[in-house]
## 1
Amino acid sequence: MMKIEQKRITAFCDVLRALVPECRLIIGPDVLNVIAVDTANVAMVNINLHKAQFEEFTEEPGEVGMDVVKWKQALDIMKTGPVTITRQAGKIVFSDGLYTYTHVPLDPTTIRKRPTCPTMMLPASVVIDAKEYHDTIKAIGVIGDKVRVSIKGTTLELSVEGDTDLIRKEIESKDGKENAVAVASLFSLDYLKETAKAMRDSGTITIHTGKDHPVRFDFDLDGMEASFMIAPRISED
Amino acid sequence: MMKIEQKRITAFCDVLRALVPECRLIIGPDVLNVIAVDTANVAMVNINLHKAQFEEFTEEPGEVGMDVVKWKQALDIMKTGPVTITRQAGKIVFSDGLYTYTHVPLDPTTIRKRPTCPTMMLPASVVIDAKEYHDTIKAIGVIGDKVRVSIKGTTLELSVEGDTDLIRKEIESKDGKENAVAVASLFSLDYLKETAKAMRDSGTITIHTGKDHPVRFDFDLDGMEASFMIAPRISED
Amino acid sequence: MMKIEQKRITAFCDVLRALVPECRLIIGPDVLNVIAVDTANVAMVNINLHKAQFEEFTEEPGEVGMDVVKWKQALDIMKTGPVTITRQAGKIVFSDGLYTYTHVPLDPTTIRKRPTCPTMMLPASVVIDAKEYHDTIKAIGVIGDKVRVSIKGTTLELSVEGDTDLIRKEIESKDGKENAVAVASLFSLDYLKETAKAMRDSGTITIHTGKDHPVRFDFDLDGMEASFMIAPRISED
């Protein structure tokens, strides 16, 4: 059995939902973990929700076929107080003391395998206010569907090019670290938007990237550690 | 001529609109009454708005072909203060002192006849908070389109079954009455949703039902007495 | 270069957007001016934003092909504080100090010519609260798509006729001027709605019209002088 505040486990589902509708949930002895890749193989999420964030965590370790959409549906009808999540005879029972949602989980073997986390040298990084990053991605997306993410010195620049027009915004890094190399890569707006929304309440996010390399966002949502990695688009398409 | 607060006559129209777009309105010597059945013959409404709820009520008794949608439209543009409703030369004139809405009523003979109110033994009943009932119906409808309404002892249970999942909620009756028999019937979510919305502000509602029998909701909206009756769905479909 | 509060230049664009997606913007020595006709030749706008409304106004006089939709898009992502608008090497650069929006203007020769402002005798006029006018146009439009605008004595009457129903509202003129002639003309609801929205925050508007003649709305938005003129619909269609 797991007992946890509704909004904490909802935040866990929201991060996953930014990329995947279903995934393999690993119940460890003291952590819930998911590593998953989206259908198009463009983006990856890695998330850990630790035992310390639970009021109770006595569930047997194992693997669960997690239907993220159904989990969200179950949690959406629950009150914001603590909810219990229990595995019973092959089912998962969510309850907040008022509503009871009995759910048949997916067969894990029908879900994509967990990918191996790539180790990748991303030479430049900045630390940015999560809300400002989110609002910028939302604002600049009006004229195009690809975003250039550049880091130079202590500055992150986000820009979008339309047919004739160009929008850009510079944001100063909060850690003051001077990056030795200037880098820039191009990403799909849709992926940046979905992930930005999931990170919005995380205070600050650390953004790592390179020249025509993936971008990785590391963030912490009230003790839940997570990261998104997104592959670049080819500039010329 | 009738003079009444806009929100009272709007509430009257809202209850009707939950089931029918048009109906036969009976203007009695000291009451407005409608008894009407929806097009699919699944649900019935019976409502009385008494003279005491009006500031003036000097309209001649008679029958009016009521276009509920148009009445709503007329009332929606009026201020929330008192509105006058007057029959003049075959027309109905709504006015709040600013806007004047002149409406040609329907010919009552083109509208379905008033049904006879069935007398029906519904052995079990509970008294439930109207808002909690409304919120529950709205919440549990996410996974299916049929709702099981059960009464057992002092408890109402509402549940919906999806393809694999099940949501249920128990609500304790406010009158503490112990029901001698346990009953359950299945109803269309759509009818429960529409009627729940119309009853939301009524404080408490009394729910009567039986085993595979209709359900009846009795409620009072600020002095306006009304009831909805809904026929059950066959469990096996 | 022009420097102006974002909301002032946005209001300028909103007035234009009520009728045209693009127009010829005249930058005069101490004013921005547009006179433009909508695609259907039904309505005209004439607007002046004076140097006094700017924090700086050092832009060279000339004509600019103004893409109103793109200007709105650029201004929408800016903060509400001052924005600078600069012509640089054939481009227009908008900036609020955070976002930079670089825009390629339209070729003015591809845009409809500026019309000559007709001088027209409109014998009757009233002065009306802009918000009340807006709310009335919005409310009465529910039953039809043509609005009759009548002036008689000191009163403006707005009315819409549906298939069977009729809505009307009288509004007293604020200037107390008794009009010698009673006039009435019929107009498309859509034009009245769009222009009413653009005038809503202007305090009062002066409405001039005649018998089956155009209507002209004169208004002032925080120092920006503008007028809309709309041609009547033939009553019999």
## 2
Amino acid sequence: MDSRFTHIVPSSSFNGNTDQNEKYSDDEERSLYSFATALSMSGGDGDNSYSTNSLLQRRVLSKAKPVLVKNTKELIINLNFPKYIKVADLGCSSGQNTLLAMSEIINTINVFCQKWNQNPPEIDCCLNDLPNNDFNTTFKFIHLFSEKNLTCKGSYFVSGVPGSFYSRLFPRNSLHFVHSSYGLHWLSKVPEGLEKNKMSVYITTSSPLSTYKAYLNQFQRDFTTFLKLRYEEMVPNGIMVLTFIGRNTIGNPLHRDCCHFWTLLSKSLRGLVVEVYISKSKRKHLFLL
Amino acid sequence: MDSRFTHIVPSSSFNGNTDQNEKYSDDEERSLYSFATALSMSGGDGDNSYSTNSLLQRRVLSKAKPVLVKNTKELIINLNFPKYIKVADLGCSSGQNTLLAMSEIINTINVFCQKWNQNPPEIDCCLNDLPNNDFNTTFKFIHLFSEKNLTCKGSYFVSGVPGSFYSRLFPRNSLHFVHSSYGLHWLSKVPEGLEKNKMSVYITTSSPLSTYKAYLNQFQRDFTTFLKLRYEEMVPNGIMVLTFIGRNTIGNPLHRDCCHFWTLLSKSLRGLVVEVYISKSKRKHLFLL
């Protein structure tokens, strides 16, 4: 299970002049922050780690590769073969997947510059996820990344950027390329108005339409925040490649295909309540973001 | 014991067009890299962690504070109250100390800009150490850092940069301010010519002068590399504040005061060899960098 969660409270950055829609008091910020810090993927590279169980996410990266390559080339042309570019992977997670997209971008740039007989730019590779993400594990894989790119003629520099992508993460006007794969469907907080969706962690076929709308509203607010923030951070002519989970069934928002996986999770949790492994009151607070 | 070690092999960055003095074949690079990855401080924040046992380093930071503050103000004047500055702390280690210098820099800039009625710049705070450094623990302290700086009127952005400061870590012409405290005395590799310094991990009062010279030569090579690399990375009018361990006794390089601490360590290791906890052959390979 992918456990990348995001939260709207600034964590690694603080913008005193923020123009975000949501503003909290100091106390609220602290309480929301502690909520955010409690969220993290399963770290390390053991059997139960995210790193070892993210084949689906790897497949998504692989499927989106042609779009990534095409847009990377376009960026280099847009910027007229620049000397320097800054690339961010938002919601990078931990493990080997983390460096796959970056590797593809570096490789594409180098081959493309070579083809056009131009010097490749220096590349700043910024890997972002929540502060509780296991950056240590990701950094341990960097030597493999370096070995893979030893033939690369340009220079690249890797950094880890801890913080929610629903907060400012980078200085104004600094990013040339933003990539995010399989991360933006995670919301910043539990949507408001889930009271009628008792005993389910997400939308199910039996949920009231208000549950679907609550999730939709939260997504719209979050995605708007995301776009506004990236607008501040990106240079003109920059490019974003965002890979999302989508729906095949537009007509019926409660269609089984959209949420079957999470329905099974809800059922399992209900089973744990019946068997008294989880109390009913605790269960009420379990929601999928 | 401070266990920050450094190594000359590029780890998080690779510069195909490197003009460093030292060049290695692919095999040598790989072997040297595996040597570097084996080195790390004691992570976490438990009783035996670096984080919990770095009071000395905290005192060093505290003593150097006036120099840091003075130079931070000079930087802002040099750059004529810029909109953006990028600050790097090289050999940042893990734990709360890591963010102390950054906090001081941010605070100084904000108060100084306020005094001169200028908008504070956006600040990129880059925390560097070897890839095996426990960045996770450092990132966990970021919320305290954010809380401490909540009154800060400017924006700042924290990132972790894994790699040796004896390799390129940042793009050309990008750094405005470089800070390094109590880290640059760690060498990139075991000096050559320590054959005659048997059974000691470092210079002792009984070491031959050749041992002292071997360490001095390695330091000079490393520090030259460090300065050359930072020269490439820093902007004109940038500033560096480097805090070193120094010597009170210039006349006698083998003076007890310079190495007594490590002499005790050598003796302890010799004791472990006598008691067969460490084999004689393994002991031969133990050196302080």
